[in-house]
Amino acid sequence: MPLAAVIFDFDGVLADSEPVHLAVFQTVLDSVGITLTPEEYYEKYLGYSDRDAFIQVFADRGVTMDAAGLEALLETKKGLFPEAIGDHALYPGAGACIARVAARVPVAIASGALRHEIELILDRSGQRAHFPVIVAAGETPRSKPSPDPYARAFELLKASGALPATASPADVVAIEDSEWGLQSARGAGLRTMAVLTSYGRDSLPSAETHLASIADVTIEHLEALVATERASA
């Protein structure tokens, strides 16, 4: 089968938003006496949903947080993000990449970001109409690195009729910036491409191919990946 679809991660792939997420996480965690360094965030927590990131931060520090307290922190971060992101939007070249890929095959998003955050940035950048399928934080039983987000995005594309009945996950390319996300895509059976916006090549061993940024992604790269034999896990 030829290339059937492309599923993008969002933060760190299309949107230059990871520094904003870090700053908001730091603000919220400071309010409960926890310091989060940039090194910790990028090494340990970037690939998680907000909920799982907070849970893991508390676990790593031996801090107990009840359900109500966790929900309050999540709501605080949710409320702070729109102002913090401001006009901070897509990476240079991301809009052009979306347009050229969407002109050839269906596109979707599978992200650990909240839906309103994704849609806010897509709306501000004029890209929302390209994405009939978005899978966001809390919309699958498990978040990345579980296969659930990518498996769900593939299922929704197929249910919409956007994919041929014979299409399989191996005909779809996931574009990611983190090893957590690459593991998620690989576990769902997709082909894996990494952009080196958050990590270096050596930190992304589950990627079958690497490109410097989203601006460098072409249809030819995507089709060539699907046409090659899958790399061993």
Blueprint (SSEs and pairs):
Layout (H helix, E strand, L loop, with lengths): L4 E4 L9 H13 L7 H8 L4 H12 L5 H19 L8 H9 L4 E4 L4 H11 L7 E3 L12 H12 L12 E5 L2 H9 L3 E5 L13 E3 L7 H9 L6
Parallel strand pairs: 1-2, 1-4, 2-3, 4-5, 5-6
Helix pairs in contact: 1-4
Quick structural overview:
The chain is of the alpha/beta class and 233 residues long.
Explain this structure.
The longest helix is centred in the first third of the chain and has 19 residues. The protein is α/β, with parallel strands linked by helices and 233 residues long. The model has no long low-confidence stretch (mean pLDDT 93). Strands 3-2-1-4-5-6 form a six-stranded parallel beta sheet. Helices cover 44% and strands 10% of the residues. It is built from nine helices and six strands; from the N terminus they run βαααααβαβαβαββα. Helix 1 packs across helix 4.
Radius of gyration: 17 Å
How many helix segments?
9
What is the number of strand segments?
6
- Strand order across the largest sheet: 3-2-1-4-5-6
Short descriptors:
233 residues, alpha/beta, 9 helices, six-stranded parallel beta sheet
